[in-house]
Amino acid sequence: MKTALIVFVKNIGYEPVKSRIGHEVGSHMADAIYGELLQATRQLCVGLSHDIHVYYSHHIDFNDAWTGIAKARHLQVQDPDLGRRMKAAFEDLLPLYHKVAIIGSDCPYLSPAQINEAFAALDGVDVVLGPSNDGGYYLLGMRSMTAPLFDNISWSTSEVLGQSLEKLWLAGKSFAKLDYLDDIDVYADYERWKIHILLHQRILHVVKLLGIICIVVKAPAFLAHLRGFGDEVGNGNQVSQFAQLG
After folding, report:
1. How far apart are the C-alpha atoms of 17 and 28, rounded to whole Å?
2. Fewest Cβ atoms closer than 10 Å to its Cβ: which of 44, 106, 165, 242?
């Protein structure tokens, strides 16, 4: 089955890309943080078996780092309403693919396994949602257009997920939910993410060291075992054992 992942991204420099972070630490720092989130999103998409369609907020950048990752680049419908922009992207791709999902670029905790889980879930349900802990969602996937999900939603509020689930219930649509994840909305979210990365790196470092220690510790014992085996062969003990087995 053909599957497509829509990635909504913002063009840095055309609008406040992370407005709440910008209010806390300034627009330049917010732009830099969003650049890190974009890099994390690109890294997420590397190696996925789904076709990646990048939708830009203001203009299509053919010279950015999505080269070799994105199957195609698109311009989002120039509408201030997020729901209408998302709906237009699904309308572009649903006629071409069996399953389509959309993500943004502000949930760095999302993993390739969860993306694959979302597409697998669509084998048995109409819609899949990846809920975020702030009351929104970081992923939406569907097999066919479910228009009510894009209309009259209080975007960028804690009501998004609840309103979306209510619309699915009213429309009689089956759905599945992925694990709850955090996204990056304020500077404290960014700090927690950086701590998470640091801890992950340290854990990997410790695991690597433990592996080296195990090799070093086991090597002398293994060599002693080989020396003992050689001595026994020299004495004929192992030879006689092998002869008995034969």
Report:
1. 10
2. 242
